[in-house]
Amino acid sequence: MTTLARLMPRGVTISIAMLAQWCLTGAAQTFNPKAIFNTCAQAVVYIETEKGSGTGFFIHPQYIVTNKHVVQRWGTGADNRRYLDAYNSARDIRIQLRSGRWIDVVQVLPLVEYPDIDIAVLRVSSYDGVVLPIKPTVADVGEEIVLIGHPLGSKWTQTSGTVSNIIDETFIQFNAALDRGNSGSPAIDKRGQVVGIHMMGIYLSMTGKFGIRSDVLRELLDRYRIPYSTDPLMIPTTEEHGEFLRTLNERESNLNEREYNLNERESRIAEREERLRQMEQQLVRDRIQLAQDSARFAAKVHEARTSLLDYETKLEQLQNHQRELEKLHRKLLSREEDLNERERWIRAKEQQVRSMLSPHFSLDFAACPTYNLHAAQLVPLRLVSGLYYRFGIVRDAANDIERADKVGIMLGRQIAPTGWEQDEAAFAIEFRNLVRIMLGMVVRQPDRVAGVAIPPPRQRYTASIMLDFAPSSPLLTGIGLTAQTDQKMQSTALMLSFLLGYELNFFHW
Question: Using the 8-state DSSP alphabet, how is residue 459 labeled?
Fold first, then answer.
């Protein structure tokens, strides 16, 4: 009873561990082409050159991936693909977003060091919409996908199919319907991740559609240090969550029922043991009575023999009962061992799931005594605080977070001996918890005559860089250098700061 009773509260733990594992792996997520298009289409762009048109997609707010041949000039072929003059310049390429807005290309990166891989990257000035994550592993044959592109000039057209084949170490084959204009189209799986980039097809072939694998794209982007994301866009629906929870409840109910049956069997065994004990006591009494009766009833030998035969029958019955009890006992021990092994496995899985969760947001506060090098003046107090999103998380051998990149917004207030001087707002990006770069502007300053806060009469901009001495600690200690100027670069200042603060990480998923 004690061993079985300890198993009762584990139903909730089993349900939570299995649900967390299911949500992280996406095992129960269904393929929903409509939801994929609604989520991912705005990250796909229409590319237009004097040669024609093609497709591309955002992997980062400043970078678009497409094919080399989409941005090639007229009359250029394979022999001169290594040379930059074989490709259109940034001013000759036009990019149209899903919203209909056209944006400018800042730089064309044809990745000329890899002429046999039909991938080029376009850098643009700004974009604030959805970007497509890249699948970190190779897709499986038979996996369902959709491709979004502009076949024959029909913009933002979706077609679906499956992965037909994985060819050598570079290419992937699709069986989706694709035409001219689909070059550069992303092949997207059920989680919204890009598994390949369409580059060519065999004329009049239904299955001869080929692309470049996602792992090849990731390796190229890493070599050129072009940022991208791998976090899935699509998550399981509420109905899928509900169906999985119903399955868990049914399994938990079955487990409780089996446990109840074990308790019933244990109770019956206890009753049989009690009956056996009573029979053994009765047997002792029978033996005593037999010894007493043998002396007094010598004449009743036949009756004594009958009693002895009855005794042997009872003894055989007792022995049979004992063998049954031993067999049941071995079964109970085996069942208990199985349940203990399953409990150890579930606890290990639960620990593994918990180790995968990471805090993705951070909030920090810091005080920065500053010395104005230009004015040779000490600013005793400069208060800053920031809210950041953490990405690019790196773990050590113990699965603890060792480094992370961050991007966010920072607010600051500068206080001089004469009182409050100005408020600042800045955009900040931090690399590996070590170096932080901030670009911003002065948003308010005091009007000491009127006694109110006003925007500066002449706009001033700030640029800062900070070095953290202890990147692995939540305490912020380091030095920073800040430059401040106006639009005409006339009123400039250079300030050296000492940083002391604290970083708070939160919101795990």
Answer: -
Main-chain phi, psi angles of 332, to 5 degrees? -65, -40
pTM value is: 0.46
Q: At what angle do helices 301-356 and 10-25 cross, to 10 degrees?
A: 40
Among 323, 340, 355, the domain boundary falls at: 355
DSSP state of 30: P
The pLDDT tens digits for 237-260 are: 677 667 767 877 888 888 888 889
Helix (H, G, I), strand (E, B) or coil at 39: helix
**For 141-171, what is each residue's pLDDT tens digit?**
999 999 999 998 889 999 999 999 998 888 9
Alpha-carbon gap, residue 270 to 430, rounded angstroms: 68
Q: What Cα–Cα distance (Å) separates residue 453 from each residue in 367, 386, 421, 442, 491?
A: 22, 22, 10, 12, 21
Residue pair 374/460 in contact by the 8 Å Cβ criterion: no
Count of alpha carbons within 13 Å of 48, Cβ hemisphere only?
A: 11
State how far the Cα of 215 lies from the Cα of 235, in Å rounded to an integer. 22
Roughly how many angstroms between the first and final C-alpha of the chain, as a whole number? Answer: 39
CA 189 to chain centre: 16
Tokens of residue 273, six digits: 């043991």
Residues 203 and 263 in one domain: no
Residues 294 and 373 in one domain: no
Look at residues 415, 448, 412 and name the one whose alpha carbon lies nearest to residue 427: 412
